[in-house]
Design a protein that fits this description.
Helix content is 17%, strand content 28%. It has 316 residues and is an alpha+beta fold.
Length: 316
């Protein structure tokens, strides 16, 4: 059995632990939903004013797992949490470095990632166990202003909960239109490879799902949720938190999930819905993992936005 999940050179800079520079790969060039290409397609991204199709946010989570594992060991894989606000997009070919800073002995830490030019990619917190302080997104949720005059998200309500859905990720399973690749294909390009992701040589005797692929596992059935969102409209992940409670999650294992809308918010360009996904073993009620996700839909990408807003909210 491998005694460590990762064999990677980390750098200590005072109390900060830094990983190596990495060039993540965009594996969502062929992603589609609502019968159109997504923001990760170069042409669609440029149409909406972006330089190119960005790397999917959760891809960057892989770079933090070796850092957290170096601090908390196997415990992080069992009951760790990464919670972050995505600050700036990363295009394929750009280099990214992950950092973590923990006060000695604490069960929580600050995390951030930057590009070579210092641009901040994301920032947030890492933690272990149920006694850790509020996460970055716990704090962010408490500060949100409610969404006023929603159009794209007009039919959604805080507290809505989806029915329980079965999920599973096998090594060679194609993960659908939202994620047009398999775990095996991802592992060939993942920034932080680990024998624990593909072999059975782990403390649990089974390969574990990489942190970034937990997002894929929990989202690839999202179109079955039945949440009524007007479209077609293009969206992106703006905030994300993945928490293990009784982890890790395993490749080739059956799970069940439910999703709940916990907040609706917005900005000048976006309408956002925040969902919390709860993961269970089949037939059980104990949560074994959760994911909090803020999906921001771009107002300008919805062709009928102005007309429907005028219809829904006529001037008095």
């Amino acid at each position: 059995m491998s005694t460590r999940a990762f064999d990677v050179q980390l750098e200590s800079i005072g109390q900060v632990l830094a990983g190596p520079w990495r060039k993540p790969v965009n594996m969502l060039l062929e992603q589609s939903y609502d019968n159109h290409l997504s923001l990760h397609d170069d042409a669609m991204a440029q149409k909406l004013g972006f330089k190119a199709g960005p790397i999917e946010g959760p891809t960057h989570y892989s770079q933090f797992v070796p850092l957290a594992e170096a601090i908390w060991g196997e415990r992080f894989l069992r009951e760790g949490c990464l919670s972050a606000h995505y600050r700036n997009m990363v295009m394929e070919g750009e280099e990214v470095r992950a950092f973590i800073e923990r006060e000695p002995g604490e069960d929580h830490a600050k995390i951030w990632a930057t590009k070579r030019d210092g641009t901040e990619v994301l920032k947030g917190t890492a933690s272990v166990g149920p006694q850790a302080p509020p996460t970055a997104l716990d704090l962010r949720l408490n500060e949100l202003q409610p969404l006023e005059q929603p159009v794209i998200l007009h039919a959604l309500k805080v507290g809505q909960r989806t029915k329980r859905t079965k999920i599973r990720m096998d090594a060679d399973q194609h993960m659908g239109d939202l994620y047009p690749f398999s775990l095996t294909q991802k592992l060939a390009k993942i920034t932080e490879p680990s024998p624990w992701y593909s072999g059975k040589d782990t403390p649990w005797g089974r390969p574990i799902v990489p942190w970034e692929m937990v997002s894929v596992l929990l989202q690839y059935v999202a179109r079955q949720d039945g949440l009524k969102i007007r479209g077609p409209a293009v969206g992106l992940f703006a905030d994300q938190e993945i928490r293990m409670i009784d982890g890790p999650l395993f490749v080739g294992e059956d799970y069940e999930i439910e999703r709940e809308i916990v907040a609706l918010s917005g900005s000048r360009r976006t309408e956002s819905y925040w969902t919390r996904t709860f993961v269970y073993r089949p037939g059980e009620s104990k949560e074994i993992a959760t994911m909090l996700l803020n999906q921001a839909t771009l107002r300008e990408s919805y062709a009928s936005y102005a007309a429907e807003r005028a219809e829904l909210y006529p001037a008095v």
